[in-house]
Fold each of these.
Amino acid sequence: MTNNARPWALGVLLLGTACAPKLPPADAGFVAKWTATHYALARAERLSPPNASRTSAYAAIALYEGWAAFSDSLRSLAGQLNGLAALPRPSREERYDPALVAMEAQTVVLRSLYAEGFASTGVAISALHDSLVGVRVTQGVSEPIRRRSLAYGAELGTAILAWAAEDGFAKRTFGYQPLKGAGYWQPTTTTAQYRSQNLSAERDFVGFDNPTAAARPGESGDRSITVNRPKRPNTTVPGINPLVAMEPQWGSLRTFALDSAGSCPPPPALAFGSDKASPLYAEALQVVEMRRSLTEEQKRIAYFWADNPGESGTPSGHWMSVVSSLSEQWMLSPERTVEAYALTAIAVADAFIGCWHQKYSSNILRPVAYIQRYIDPTWQPLLNTPPFPTYTSGHSTQSAAAAEVLTALFGDNRPYDDPTHITLGHPVKRLASFREAAREAGLSRLYGGIHFPMDNVGGRMQGECIGRAVLSRVHTREGP
């Protein structure tokens, strides 16, 4: 292989092989099945939202690069993303199957990133990989092309892993001493809440026909799963611990496209004040009143967008699920799907880095702490409060960033269906646009009682800035 930041076009790669039979076309299911699997794996592994966003971003880039290497229109991200100078390029003289290359590259990345995960996770990745390889062989991809494509895909995935290893993830630490003072954040989760979230819910037996151990109609019951296996700490895929600060150093990780974690700052947060004339007191009163007057529809919105770790694929997984659903609803091509997948994943990952940088810089207490201390000691939010500072809202930030990217790709005011949480008992949700979805996701945290209004407003502004910055920096199409 050779290194070059610019991919060869498919026509150049096939120069001299014009008489060879054409490769069978691959449908977008080769991409959509992976985005759906990401959601399932993040849920099964109980990844924290920041961790899930990082995993999805590297996997999405690997899948994208596999297709871009043979595309007449897609442009490699090498030379565009921070620290990614170059990637291996395919030989000019050989034929490859883009679907197999992309799939193998992403598989190599996922197997490494989940290497310390549950056994069922490895089974799920291998099962999907092997089944899709079998499909391509059945469709007519020859053995030489299969071997060559898988070898190049592995080389591509290995190069992406080498790049990922330098992002600061392995060097971050978890020890964090909350600041002392009335206005600073302190953990608010109880031991009882932690106990319920610390169970893995992984089955003792993993069937190859159901590698993610998903509950299916007719087989769910107290004997079908075990819930007595906590996740091992200090691994590359640690489970969440709501009793301590979640990922206090996440804001120091290398960004994907942003110049720095602080390059899209939100407006300054309101200053702390406990007297009734304080603007923050007024915001807390809004949270109290909203909780008191919640409608059934607002409760449904809060639960739909909750995306709790361990119960779902996390907020970042939700947007990956949306991309998967769009691929099927709108019958997108594989190239269009990997483009949306990569850009959305990059924007969401950078949004988590930027948001976490802001959270631990401002370090503001959560509404539940403020309200119980200064307004009503018996008050409780609708949702459990997550273990990190309040400003800005992670849901608002990453949803706004995703919405900016998807709106740029597919247009504004384009309705779509979101079936992400059918397995959690939610019906398919119809949304008028990506920006409406982002606004609703942000408001859901106010309905849940876990954010001040300023968290939502600041997060939305921060996320929109991040989405625009990603679009300005990362160019997926050839040409000016």
Amino acid sequence: MVGSSIARALNQDKNIKILKTSSTELNLINQEEVTNFFNNNKIDEVYIAAAKVGGIYANNTYPAEFIYKNIMMTSNILNSCFESNISKVLYLGSSCIYPKHAEQPISEDMLLSGKLESTNEPYAIAKIAGIKMCESYNRQYNTDFRSVMPCNLYGKGDNYGEKESHVIPGLIRRFHEAKQNNYKSVFVWGSGKPKREFLYVDDLASACTHIMNLDKKNYQNLTNPMCSHINVGKGVDISIKDLSYIIAKIIGYKGEIKFDTSMPDGTMKKLINSNLIKNSGWVPSISIESGIKLAYKDFITSHRK
């Protein structure tokens, strides 16, 4: 989802040649394959969007896969970027890197200030390792490895799987199937009280290209060597309950919405402070309602295949 969106944004510049690869073409966990890929291609800039991702169920069920695969992919790519003298790299993380009880809205300097949310700790640790790898290479070798930490993402190309999906794609699938099958009610995991911040993936793509186009000195002025990542979000959050009703309305589901309190809520509130990137001249443009309409259209298209 993220990589495809960034590619679409970059394609607007006809002077840029994009080299894309998928997991079926290149095993990023295999160091030799990654090294050969960089040696066999002339590359100027790298956007690291590759990751093993999933919602609460997937994180709880496959913790070993989440920490191992994400650390290995990041390590192999960043070290190959260094050895190949790549001029600029952008590493994409996640807002789950922040402590469970971080002060809201969460600023970049809250990293490593407290305990992580247990349901996604392995994934968060892998993402933190990626940030610190970027910082470490910059400090030791004066590389230009940058990091952005987006809030919860959704949009075209999302994973709508029953057990692997995140909140919005999971709810889109659930309400769509309920409408198709005339279900009288739909269960949503958790109490519905937790609040989350959501960003449509094309907004993230515009933020990524914006950050990469900043002069190195300007980027360094926004950050510091030991806290070099930048948050990317909308600046507003919404409860899962309110989000559920918005999605149901857009899809046209008119049945009852019930909340399964036997399922975990995760962090009750997670709103990030995006002042750094906004002060640099970037702002999001897609509302939650418009974004969900676009996401549902994408679901319908992919669901028919």
Amino acid sequence: MRRTLIILFLLAVPALGAQGAPDLATAEVVDLTHPYDDKMIYWPTSPSAFQLTELSKGKTPGGWFYSANSFCTPEHGGTHLDAPVHFGEGRRTADQIPVRQLIAPAVVIDVSRQSAESPDYRLTAADVQAWEQRNGRIPAGAIVLLRTGWSARWPDRKRYLGDDKPGDASNLHFPSYGEESAVLLVKERKVGALGVDTASIDYGASKDFIVHQTAAAGEVPGLENLMDLDRLPETGAWIIALPMKIAGGSGGPVRVVALLSR
């Protein structure tokens, strides 16, 4: 039965399923996640950052080694997931997002050239349509990953965000999705998630966060602060993006990996 379901799923996504899902026994695994440490970048208005506190480290009275820590972090920092409820009242919280929605074929759209020319670049519907002319229609349920090249600036806060004034998010500059592409992807293509290698699925200078609002209305989570998207092809990879299952959470840290057929 499970094998039948997998075959039916692949038939439902012909543009990406032609190469088939990677074989888990032989697939190349690419980690798209920044480590959580004291260099972690948070939104400028975040009241706190990641903290790791050592609770125990060393030999116990019984003679064995033991290490344990506590950590504290806002939900939205570093490589993390935005649950739909983050910008949509009554929408799904982090623990309510179906796991199936977070394990899916990847669509990688590269706008690194345009982003190098303008830090305020926003993905257009024409960009999406150009991708589809090369690769076929983006299937429902796919996880779209927008490659801007911005992860190469990590962890330089000023270069990555466009500004490094603590507590001030009024002068940020980095590329991301635009409203028209978000509407196309969420409402018409019905994708499963939107990911990007910048700090937000809205571009830095946004004042209305319309992409977040559009995604939330469609129950589409966001994946922000990804890395190494240049290692992925336009099609053929599969994404596993599993966040901390925070009950009632508006998001949380997420480990995102890509699986590539060898």
